[in-house]
Write a structure and sequence with these properties.
The chain has 136 residues and is an all-beta fold. The chain has no helices and 13 strands. It has strands at residues 3-12, 18-27, 31-33, 37-38, 53-55, 57-65, 71-75, 91-92, 95-96, 100-110, 119-120, 126-127, 129-134. The strands form 5 sheets. The protein has a 5-stranded mixed beta sheet with strand order 4-13-10-6-7, with no helix packed on it. It is elongated, with a radius of gyration of 21 Å. The relative contact order is 0.22.
Length: 136
């Protein structure tokens, strides 16, 4: 659970004399996951929407672009727990977009003021952008 914890270490020397030290530790669970595919027409409700998952975000903005560079969806909505609130259904101007790859870009800051460094897109490097495949 998020919070401040006191960590205590008690050590004894060869003469059985103890020594104690304490340190406060701030624990904040944080993370952001961006899926890489979704299928708006799927019978499985869990994969119908492009829904980023995260916790303890203070600021967040996600943008999805077509392969031509047109912005097709954008969100910055977070709930009280710092979780992304909105999802994309694969439409633009109320029309389902063609099947294919779209580009996402995210900027995010956690509640401890650290920046989200990105996710591993399969090449071992962290990136704050990637692709999402829309499947019909």
């Amino acid at each position: 659970e998020d919070g401040t914890y006191v960590i205590q270490l008690i050590a004894w020397n060869d003469y059985n004399c103890p020594d104690t030290t304490e340190q406060e530790y701030e624990l904040l669970f944080k993370g952001l996951y961006i899926p890489n595919a979704f299928s708006p027409r799927s019978p499985n409700a869990d994969v119908r929407l492009f829904q980023p998952k995260g916790i303890n975000l203070k600021q967040y903005i996600i943008e999805v672009y077509s392969s031509w560079g047109n912005l097709v969806w954008k969100s910055k909505a977070l709930d009280d727990d710092g979780c992304p609130e909105e999802s994309w259904d694969g439409t633009y101007q109320n029309k389902l977009l063609p099947m294919g790859a779209y580009i996402w870009k995210v900027t995010a800051i956690f509640r401890d003021n650290t920046y989200w460094e990105g996710s591993d897109n399969g090449d071992g490097n962290l990136k704050t952008y990637g692709t999402i495949t829309l499947i019909h």
